[in-house]
Amino acid sequence: MHGLMMDQPLLISSLLRHAERHHGDQQIVSRRVEGDIHRYTFRDMAARSRRLANVLRALDVAPRTVVATLAWNGYRHMELYYAVSGSGSVLHTLNPRLHPDQLAWIVGHAQDQILFFDLSFLPLVEQIAAQLPSVRAFVLMTDRGHMPARSGIANLQCYEELVEAAADRFEWPLFDENTASSLCYTSGTTGDPKGVLYSHRSTLLHTFGVALPDSLGLRAQETVLPVVPMFHVNAWGQPYAACMVGAKIVFPGPQLDGKSLYELFETERVTLSSGVPTVWQGLLAYVEQHGLRFSTMKRTVIGGAACPPGMLRAFVQRHGVAVIHGWGMTETSPFGTAAVLKGSQLVLGEEERFSVQAKQGRCVFGIDMKIIDDSGVELPWDGRSSGHLMVRGPWVIERYFKAPPQQQALVDGWFPTGDVATIDRDGFMQITDRSKDVIKSGGEWIGSIDLENIAMSHPAVAMAACIGVPHPKWDERPLLVVQTRPGAAVGRDELIAFYAGKVAKWWIPDDVVFVAEIPLGATGKMLKTELRKRFSDHRLPDAEGR
Ligand code: AMP
């Protein structure tokens, strides 16, 4: 017997409709790429999103086609979030930090048809436009006054002109909630980047999960400033969650340095923010250097990389700002766990609380997890047994974009995260290692395989392994371990210079060490776990990073 309740699909457009009807006066404030502060309301945003949906129609964007953005966190990007997905197309948020060739590859793989981009990316788009045959139209997200007099891009259009000329009326279509809504690529594992294709249903359910009290605890009274980029897993769902609860949203644009963020926190009375540890390091350093206080900031969400215990203490003890340490992945939309204390843990002393909060946390409803050993046997939740972390849930990936149906990303219905973790009796997961072969620097991936292949194309290199070693600012930086060919010689600086122009600058290894022999496992694979152990204390030369 079926239940007798309304069968309404869970669609992204419903978030916008709700925000407009019930929180129409709530503000969206953006530091613009053009340099000034822009301020309007959810009502304005909804009206402009409808116009933008008409623009997409005029540009012949059929449902299910892919529309790309190359943009910072800002109101125009938010309008695109709603107009593209809401009208049934797929929003593909491109990561501008990737190497231009990799970006071009991703646009081609996704078959992006329209590219909307911020003014700061004009030189980048001019550089790669000829490599983007699938893109029919390029739209610069600015007004007429900021359009370039001349550009190498044919068919370059002006966002504001298109929006202003479009009609305001648009009926958000109803369709199956399992329809694809947005697309993000991750370079989390070996080989080419992989696309994760979210659906309206997965996005809506994830949004409920994100907003819950023991998750971000978002409410209409909050002012939220997502530092985490809208091109990195949809800013952890905050552009959706803000509409769901009616929270004021503040977008920082491209200025993510400590001073700019602090000023915005104070002038806009931000109560909640979110970002990777590297960003918070910059903010804390600025605040402490100038003897400043946060006058409205109550909580900050730290994720994407492990929150250093010192950062947790600094926020809580010195600034009275609570920390929510969270874990997630592009493949999990991303929200998975948060280290928020349970009632039974409130009796713990401060030090014990800190040790719980430094863990990656417990599952939000909707996500389930387990840890298994190498042969697939589930391990106990004793806080000591360490195993491969597996997750499942309605906002977890089943298969990568364009992978054949038989190529599921799952093992027995669970997604292998590539993280290695313990889980304690209270269900708090703690990451102890990574089984996937990647380096994460400042919250963004560096492809170790690509770096090794380049090194191995040097005539003096017999074998090269690239590993992440701890770095105080960037969390991890790449270290290249090299075994030279017999009789051949190459220096550190020569090898580092060898990367110029081949990868993004911030991917280039910070240092090179030469070893007599790179250790190999039984199957002939390089034993990176051993190298990581051996070089965990390696002192990198003072790297500028990126
Ligand atoms: P991404 O897909 O770029 O969001 O990266 C996901 C990966 O980042 C995870 O599989 C972890 O390896 C890492 N990660 C995310 N959050 C944390 C965290 N709180 N602590 C440690 N590693 C994390």
What can you see in these coordinates?
It contains 16 helices and 25 strands. Among the domains are: 9-24 and 39-199, ANL, N-terminal domain (Rossmann fold, 3-Layer(aba) Sandwich); 438-534, GMP Synthetase, Chain A, domain 3. Strand 5, helix 5 and strand 6 form a beta-alpha-beta unit. The longest helix has 17 residues, at 42-58. It is globular and about 70 Å long. It is of the alpha/beta class and 546 residues long. The strands form five sheets. It has a nine-stranded mixed sheet with strand order 2-1-11-10-12-13-14-15-16, sandwiched between helices. The chain has a seven-stranded mixed sheet with strand order 7-6-5-3-4-8-9, with helices on both faces. Strands 17-18-19-20 form a four-stranded antiparallel sheet, with no helix packed on it. 28% of the residues lie in helices and 24% in strands. The termini are far apart. The mean pLDDT is 94. Adenosine monophosphate (AMP) binds at residues 186, 188, 233, 303-306, 325, 327, 329-330, 334, 360, 417-419, 431, 434, 440, 445. Adenosine monophosphate binds next to strand 14, strand 19 and strand 20.
Any idea what the radius of gyration is? 23 Å
What small molecules accompany the polymer chains? adenosine monophosphate
Q: Could you report the average pLDDT, rounded to the nearest whole number? A: 94
- Tally of contiguous helical segments: 16
| Spatial separation of the terminal alpha carbons | 59 Å
Helix content: 25-40%
- In terms of DSSP E residues, the strand content is 15-25%
Name of the CATH architecture of the domain at 9-24 and 39-199: 3-Layer(aba) Sandwich
**CATH fold title of the domain at 9-24 and 39-199:** Rossmann fold
Number of strands: 25
Largest sheet, strands/sense/barrel: 9 strands, mixed
Q: Low-confidence stretches at least 5 residues in length (pLDDT < 50)?
A: none
Spatial order of strands in the largest sheet: 2-1-11-10-12-13-14-15-16
Q: Can you say what the CATH homologous superfamily of the domain at 9-24 and 39-199 is? A: ANL, N-terminal domain
Q: Provide the structure class.
A: alpha/beta
The first-level CATH class of the domain at 9-24 and 39-199 is given as: Alpha Beta
